[in-house]
Structures are given as structure tokens and as C-alpha cells.
Q: What sequence folds into this?
């Protein structure tokens, strides 16, 4: 495990050096074909780096953040587009690296403070005529107040949606929301720990469908916790926010709700689903190191086609109460369709490669590694 951590540190160092090179290239090379030629070696390097890691956790996470996210952003950056092509002061080296590796949210319309309400300027000296009217603006009535004036004074300059999020800055959290956020993820971490350390030890006594369901739960929890931890670090170090990727996907009422709002927010474009499928094949290759079976690609093609059909059907029949399906029916159907398609197309190849067993062995190795470090520290003290 110690050797794998040394490899992981070297890979991280190579990523930082490579992105620093790209940052400098952006300053001295104009966008277009010349910058693309300069960036392409880094794109190829980012596809290669995860192959140096034999750990499923390290290789999978590195592949997702650099081979997938960073590479697509670098290709956009070559043509002066995307989050890496920001103008000052948002293009510092630290922010460039953060924007490249992580799903950073960049608010298009940052909230502005109403200067008239919060920073009232001193009144200008004006002259009044004997009738009490302002000479410069005689139609103005100083003593009249608009109706519901108090409401205008306390309104926030930005609007909030029904879920309590700011539309211009949806990641903004109040202190109470922050406390709830910590509690929710602490509970998710506890459930994940119980799955890994206790529940998976009794797989031989479980039905195959139950095991696949637990794998689905594990994938959701580990991805959500990793992205939440990354979001916390990015917010603490650089003051940036990560795009929310998950919003209780088990409560989805349709495929459009699942893919458009609750899981990764993928646009309803079949080509986008195909690219997502190919990138999942790449991540599976980092895990298994065997030639892909293309089942993951077919999974995303299936969902992209079904989602497109759902959108067309909604446009044809409308969303009136006559054709609206109850959430009690559409919810279980949606979640059941997603999980069954995962069971048949996503999981078989990974399980055949015994990725699940290797993953549990890695957790045992991580636990032993942490225990050895704790033992050494206790002896030194």
C-alpha cells in the first residue's frame, strides 16, 4: 500500500506540473490550432497516467478527474472556450488547476448587493421652493412611501427556487443548511463504512439481486462522498464551488428527472450519452485492464434513446392531468428501470474481472496501513 501511495503522489505531481505548463501556454500561445498542438501531449499524458496506478480507488478517481474532466476542458481551452479560458482575476494558477480537475461551478450572474439598501449614499443638498417641492424634481413627493416598502427593503437581490437554493448562486448555503449538509454526509459515510466492513462479508448468503443492489448503493455513496469531500476542499482552499452531481436520485419520477437534475445533470442529447458511455469504458479499463465489452456504451445509448423518446412523448401528449402518471407509479418504474439496466449492462463486466473483490481487499490494505502508521506514531511518542 505504501508503494501505491508513492505512485499516487508522483502522479499528482505530474498533473500539477502538466497543468502549470498548460497555464503558461495559455498566456503565450493564441487560441486555435497552435495551442491545440501544445495541449495534445498533455491530453495523451492524462490518458496514460492512471495506468501507473494498480489501485482501483486511486486509478478510478484519477481517471475520472484528469482523463475525463481535465482532458475535455483542455480541448475546450485550446480554442479559448470553457472554464479554463476565464479572464482575470479568475485565471490564477491555483484556480486554473482546480477548474481543470474538478467539476467547478462558475456562477454566470454573481449576486450583487443592492447599494441603495445596504450602502445608502448621503442625500444630496437640494433647494426647496416655498410650496415644499423639490426644484430639481418637482414631481417627487419626499413624504410618500411605496406600498409594502418594508417588503422591498428586506428582499434579497437574488431569487430562490422551491428547494431553497439561490438561482444565480445555487451552491450558496446558509449556516443551518451547512449543518444539515455535514450531518447528511456523516450519515452516508457511516452507511458506507457498514457496507464495506460488515455487510459485504456475508455476500455468500445473499441473493444475487440483493448483492447488485448493494453495489448500486455503494457506488452512489462513494461517488457522492468523494465529490462532497472535493467540494469542501475546493471551497476551503480557493473559495470555489463544485457543481452538485447528485440530488437524491432514488426519488426520481422520470428519466428526464433522473438524468437532467438528480444524477450528473447530463443534457438530453444522444451523442452526449454515447460519449459518457465511452468514458465509462475507459474508467472500466483502468479498473480491469481488459478489452472493453462495450456494454457500458450500450447502457448509455439505451438511456439516451429512452430519454429522447420520453421528451418527445411529453411534447406530443402534453403534461395535463389527463396524461400525467402518478409519482407513486412513475418513481418505482424509473428507479427500477435504471437499476435493472445497471444489473444487466454495467455490472457484469466489472464483476467478471473480480473488481468487487479487489476493492474489498484494498480497503483491508488501507485499514492495515492506517493501523501501522498509528502504531508507529504511538511508539515514537
A:
Amino acid at each position: 500500500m505504501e508503494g501505491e501511495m508513492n505512485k499516487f503522489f508522483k502522479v499528482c505531481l505530474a498533473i500539477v506540473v502538466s497543468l502549470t505548463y498548460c497555464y503558461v501556454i495559455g498566456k503565450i500561445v493564441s487560441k486555435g490550432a497552435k495551442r491545440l498542438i501544445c495541449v495534445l501531449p498533455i491530453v495523451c499524458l492524462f490518458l496514460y497516467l492512471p495506468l501507473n496506478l494498480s489501485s482501483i480507488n486511486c486509478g478510478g478517481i484519477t481517471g475520472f478527474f484528469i482523463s475525463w474532466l481535465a482532458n475535455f476542458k483542455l480541448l475546450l481551452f485550446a480554442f479559448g472556450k470553457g472554464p479554463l479560458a476565464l479572464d482575470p482575476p479568475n485565471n490564477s494558477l491555483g484556480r486554473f488547476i482546480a477548474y481543470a480537475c474538478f467539476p467547478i461551478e462558475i456562477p454566470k450572474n454573481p449576486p450583487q448587493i443592492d447599494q441603495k439598501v445596504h450602502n445608502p449614499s448621503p442625500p444630496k443638498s437640494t433647494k426647496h421652493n416655498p410650496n415644499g417641492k423639490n426644484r430639481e424634481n418637482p414631481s417627487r413627493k419626499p413624504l410618500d412611501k411605496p406600498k409594502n416598502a418594508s417588503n422591498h427593503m428586506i428582499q434579497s437581490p437574488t431569487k430562490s427556487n422551491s428547494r431553497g437554493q439561490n438561482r444565480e448562486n445555487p451552491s450558496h448555503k446558509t449556516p443551518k443548511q451547512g449543518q444539515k449538509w455535514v450531518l447528511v454526509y456523516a450519515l452516508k459515510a457511516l452507511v458506507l463504512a457498514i457496507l464495506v466492513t460488515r455487510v459485504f462479508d456475508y455476500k455468500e448468503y445473499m441473493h444475487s439481486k440483493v448483492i447488485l443492489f448493494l453495489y448500486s448503493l455503494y457506488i452512489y455513496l462513494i461517488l457522492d462522498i468523494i465529490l462532497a469531500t472535493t467540494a469542501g476542499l475546493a471551497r476551503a482552499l480557493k473559495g470555489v464551488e463544485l457543481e452538485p452531481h447528485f440530488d437524491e436520485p432514488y426519488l426520481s419520477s422520470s428519466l428526464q428527472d433522473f438524468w437532467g437534475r438528480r444524477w450528473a445533470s447530463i443534457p438530453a442529447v444522444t451523442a452526449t450519452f454515447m460519449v459518457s458511455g465511452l468514458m465509462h469504458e475507459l474508467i472500466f479499463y483502468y479498473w480491469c485492464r481488459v478489452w472493453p465489452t462495450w456494454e457500458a456504451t450500450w447502457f448509455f445509448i439505451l438511456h439516451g434513446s429512452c430519454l429522447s423518446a420520453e421528451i418527445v412523448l411529453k411534447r406530443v401528449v402534453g403534461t395535463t392531468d389527463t396524461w400525467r402518471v402518478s409519482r407513486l407509479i412513475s418513481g418505482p418504474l424509473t428507479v427500477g428501470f435504471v437499476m435493472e439496466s445497471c444489473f444487466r449492462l454495467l455490472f457484469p463486466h466489472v464483476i467478471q474481472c473480480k473488481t468487487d473483490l479487489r476493492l474489498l481487499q484494498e480497503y483491508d490494505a488501507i485499514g492495515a496501513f492506517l493501523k501501522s502508521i498509528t502504531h508507529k506514531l504511538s511508539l515514537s511518542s
Remarks:
- Residues 109-128, 130-171 have pLDDT under 50 and may be disordered.
- Residues 176-242 form one domain.
- The CA atoms of residues 126 and 137 lie 10 Å apart.
